[in-house]
Amino acid sequence: MARDPGRVLIFDTTLRDGEQSPGASLNLDEKLAIAQQLARLGVDIIEAGFPFASPGDFEAVQRIAAAVGTDDGPVICGLARATKGDIKACADAVAPAARRRIHTFLATSDIHLEHKLRKSRAEVLKIVPEMVAYARSLVEDVEFSCEDAGRSDPEFMHQVIQAAIAAGATTINIPDTVGYTTPGEFGALIADINSQVPNIEQAVISVHGHNDLGLAVANFLEAVKCGARQLECTINGIGERAGNASLEELVMALHVRRSYFNPFLGRAEGSSEPLTAIRTEEIYKSSRLVSNLTGMAVQPNKAIVGANAFAHESGIHQDGVLKNRLTYEIIDARTIGLSDNRISLGKLSGRSAVRARLEELGYQLQGDDLNDAFARFKELADRKREITDRDLEAIVSDHTQQLEAHYQLAGVQVSCGSELRPTATVTLRTAAGEECSQAAIGTGPVDAVCQALNRLVMVPNELVEFSVKSVTEGIDAMGEVTIRLRQDGRLYSGHAADTDVVVAAAQAFVNALNRLVSGQQRLPLHPQQAPLPATSSEPLEAPAL
Ligand code: KIV
Ligand code: ZN
What we know:
Layout: E1 9-12, H1 28-41, E2 45-49, H2 55-68, E3 75-81, H3 84-94, E4 100-107, H4 110-117, H5 121-138, E5 141-147, H6 154-166, E6 171-176, H7 183-196, E7 204-209, H8 216-225, E8 230-233, H9 247-256, H10 258-261, H11 283-294, H12 315-323, H13 351-360, H14 367-383, H15 389-402, E9 407-415, E10 423-430, E11 435-441, H16 445-457, E12 462-470, E13 479-487, E14 490-498, H17 501-522
Parallel strand pairs: 1-2, 1-8, 2-3, 3-4, 4-5, 5-6, 6-7, 7-8
Antiparallel strand pairs: 9-10, 10-11, 12-13, 13-14
Helix pairs in contact: 1-2, 1-11, 2-3, 3-5, 5-6, 7-8, 11-15, 14-15, 16-17
């Protein structure tokens, strides 16, 4: 068996592979808030980003390494293609962390070699040990991934793995990059690596997988049975295309079915020792935080964290649960941090009560940020009797999106009705403090607002999604608007909440426009799509900061 940490390590890649989800790009403050929550959740490793992508990505990894990578905190990891430039940038970015890792990768499947890398197997076998050794000269902890392992020739991949370990890799990651394998095949792939790679004892076997066929979690659980001891996953399963394996599903499967998995880790079937270090009561909060900050809604029937995951609709089920919860429930909702007796805040609640609740929800606000959030809370409390956790999250995630913004919404006014042509006037304030206004007529008030905003900002875009849902129940509920804009094939999302849905729509549109404008300026490299430089050992410069 490969180097065995004695439990299953959870490697969270929400901030790297998760952020590769179309439209999910996050600003620095949002990334920091998520990293802090991941540390509270108890993940073992945080993959904080791809530092070579852009100066902004580099800075985000560096800030997370400094703030979250404490002595007793998680390992902070960065992704690097197998080139000196990427690896050096990665080492510099993770340097402030007490425990740091470089994760470098190169494809091993013939499809990738021929069509993407245009390299021979012999070249791959030369580059991998060179680059792993280079990474090892910079940090102690090096992970190597065989990209597209699921479609690679196993014998060739075994040679690459052996060379990577001989050069110093401490973790070997096996990604099902395109979500192609089935659980039986994936398990066999891991079992063969475990039994056939001569030096595999010296490395932890990790798995990474995408959900194109909806099999990522099932594949990983099979891999654990065959010796994998690190799982790469994301909160809510966000990620490229159909997403990555979902952290909450993996962790809860290992938790609920502990006695089934225990023997595969050499434990007695009845052992109650947890299989992962995750604090399950932090799962729901982590899910809400990621959903709010990325603007990626969780489908209601999503396992573990979906709105319906603990709801019993049919009379027979309700009756059974009232008699004994075990009739239809395999998880107590409190295990993932959901409780019915949440305290609501109201008009009379003070700053410290609001701050304390925000901290519990994963938002650490201080100074002006806290003052702004408290002012918004008071404003809302004047209009709404009870402020729930969902309202608070909406207030703060709106605010976090507006940090680093190019444009602030300074005003919006609409006139509409059965006899009127919907007309909107909007005012934007730029980062330099200038204000400008525009008016437009639309097919409805929201259309008029978006047209007026487009006239002001003048960047071409196409509105591809507009959705409104109420944050809580009741006539005074806030409406939450999510907007996605497309430009040159890239998606940019924005969301906002307000008791006035037209104001929420205007703010969500501005948030999406801000992402689009800053996205245009930084245009980060995509780690898996950007071609490798001609010689991967070229000492490329780290991005200038
Ligand atoms: O899906 C994949 O292969 C990846 C690698 C970079 C690990 O994300
Ligand atoms: Zn991936």
